[in-house]
Amino acid sequence: MPKGKSVTLSQRSTYILPTGLGFFMGLILLLMLVGATNYQNNLAFLLTFLVAGIGLVSMIFTYQNIQGIQFSLINPGEVFVGETLPLPISLRSINRTKHFSIGIGLDKKNVSLVDVPDDNYVTLKVDVKAVNRGRLELPRITVMSVFPFGWLRTWAYFRFDTDIIVYPEPLEPARLDTQNWGQESEEGSRVEGSEDLYGLKPYQDGEPLTRVDWKSYARERGMFIREFAAHESADLCLNWEDFPGVDNETRLSYLTYMVLEASSNQLNFSLELPDKFVEYGEGDEHRKKCLKALALFGEAPQASGTSHA
Amino acid sequence: MHSSISQIEFEKRAMPIVAILLAHQLVLIPLYFFIPLWIAVLNTLVAATVFYCARNPHVVINRWIKVGVTIVAIAGVYMAFRKFSGRDAGVSLIAVMYGLKILEIQTKRDANLVLSLSFFLLVAGFFFTQEPLIAFYQFIPVIAILNAFVAMQSLEKFELAAGNLKGVLKDLSRYLVIAIPIMIVLFVFFPRLSGPLWRMPGASVATTGVSDLMSLSEITELQTSENIAFRVTFNGDVPNETDMYWRVVVLDEFDGLSWRRTNRNLLPDMDETVFEGSFDYSITLEPTKTNYLVALDKPISSPQNASLVDDQTVRSRFRLLDRTRYQLSSKPSLIIDSSLSQVQRSKNVRIPSSGNADSVDWARDLRARVNSDEEFVNEVLRIINREEYYYTLTPGEMDEQIIDSFWLDKRRGFCEHYASSLVFLARAANIPARIVIGYQGAEKNPRTDYWIVRDANAHAWTEIWFEGRGWVRVDPTAAIASQRIEESLLQEYGQRLGLFDDFEIVELDQVGLLKELQYWMDEINSGWNDWILDYNQSRQRQFFQNWGISGLSDHMLIIIMLSIVSGLVFISGLKWFHGRTERDPLAQRFENLIQRFEQQGILKVEPHFGPKAIIDKLNKIDETRFREHTQVLNRYITLRYAERTPRQEQINELEKALTKLKVRS
User: Where would I find the beta strands (DSSP E) of B475-515?
Assistant: First the structure.
């Protein structure tokens, strides 16, 4: 079975069998042959043999119809457990011929049909259900066609090698202790320093001295507190240990939810897992990094081993 | 522009109704010549209704109307024929059912059913006529049916599969180019049966006429016909009436069922000295639609446009479609083949290795008891005369073992039974023998000076070869004692009279250009008859014998047939793939170039990138650095996607340019 990001079918693993209609045509041909034999009618013989010949030839043409197409996986969007990923696949003719009514899907019964032109590519989507978090093992994809007459069905299977990662299903934690968030961030800001200054606001009693803008104080403009990008005005450390007594997968789901929340609120946050620590950061890249870490939690370290090699 | 569609939606999509209706009607048209006219009218109305409904989806035909029409139509067929069995009623019924079925196509499944059955309907047409014109016409419905099948599977909603007629023909001709050789191989090799699997009432009877094949029962038809076969005028001497044996065909090969004429060589013209004691006469032959000319035993000259054949018969260059007159000379005392070559001899003593074993034993037994070949033949004739052998035109059914059945058991038959038995027995006793088919006797037209020979004079006799005497005519039928000839036959004799009607007569030696053309056309027709319509078990054997292959069993035929067909499919499949995958060296060079870009880390090439996209990317990176690449790639685009196929030198040049392109700066 061909594998890869971009796949062309090999002739050896392509199958062909008559369809129900094909078997019915066979029956009709048999009747014609019996009639021709009985009446010793040579024109009936000729017609029978012509149709039989066309049937045989259609074998070649049905078969070649799914050959010479390059199937490529186009980078899909992100996907969470429980969601259906519409996997975009592009089809391009690599032998300068048109390919008609090519069906692609996860099984023969449930395919999407498309014509592949000889000078352009087409894209269609195959829905794949994301069941488990982690690296997505794409199911076997079926290519099939009954073109031109519907008498024969040819099909082949292939797999895409992908680096698609399914993120854990986001779940809102039952009890979200926002007080806790602030304290965690305090420590974080001390370690990290907060570069993204949003603005200053007047100091009020009880606010941590660490965030007083001493520069303005020195210039005798008054005592101000440095305010950061988010309205929480706090750096956030999302921690595995935040949810004691909750099983691992649920923890991951909670954390996923929080990563999504935090990043949609444009917070500066870090993520701490037993096997991985993601440094403070924000933005899309950072979000992806965190989600990946959550998705791949518990994965054997072989992944890094291979990337190293 | 190109969108995908799920299979479920595809199945529900409206059907290519025009394509289906077109195929459906084209299939029915040839049948309309042979079945009641009202069926044609009904079917056309039904098709029009279906078309209207397809164009106006809100119009739906009530189910009960459909049922009603069907019942009435079936009743109509019954009224017309008073039965449903038999060819005409059967085909009418099928045509009605098939015609109305089009009302019932709601799903693709129904449509596929109708289209598949169409092929069967095409076969039904051949039971009525096998004219070449109809046969070639049937290609049109075949193509229309295939087109409808393709339209059913096409995503684009074209009624013609590829959107236009030319495209359809081009596409489907790709199938036919391979399918037709397969058809021919299957046709030649597929084993034929010697008889039908079962008999249907009302099946057509073989047409009469003297043919290459003589089957022991066909001549009866001819012998009961009072039609005039030919007329003779003698110039000078007239032979004795009982010596008027008119030769037409010599049959010298027996396959156990029928006798056949083998291929013959032409004879050179005879020496002048031979003409001593010959009869000169002219014959006016009624149209026979064969090449055989009638000649008095034994012809020594041939008219123009005809030639003498080495079995001492005369063949015309073309089939006789008109009443034809020609001049001939014959010499009854001519000795033919005073010596026989080994090949000729073995050919003329050959009988099938199995079958009729009792007769073979009988003949060998008799030959052992007599001293010479002549004595053997005389003894057989004596037996026919003395023992209970009857002459009758209604001998009843014979067994598969025809000779055994007639000679040792039934003992009732007519000339062909006697002739073929004598030849068989002689051959079994290793005496060269053959059958001659023609006419015996003639009657003088009292008003004028010509003689009339009728179909009823059709006769079969034998020629036995004796050392030194050559082929000698022996007529076993003449040996039958007169009291054992059916009375009715005797009474009929002598009451016949015939006059010329107003037919035009063609002189065989003065054939005009127009006639030539007509004969030429007829030649095609005759070839059609010989090689297509009459290609049966014995012709199949003959065909292989001509290639030096004999005694092929049905098993062997099937094995050879399947090997050739699978070979054909395999080769055309292989050729196709090679033609496709190795044809495009340009594309290969392009792929290589892209790979080099990727390896150098210049571009990340998505698999669906075409050359245009690559150019864009390169220009974004550095326009001046990749100017040369852009130029070459642009040339690649023009060549690759050109309307016309590029010239070879253009390809070579570009191929070089693509290979040379430097990727590293």
Answer: 506-507
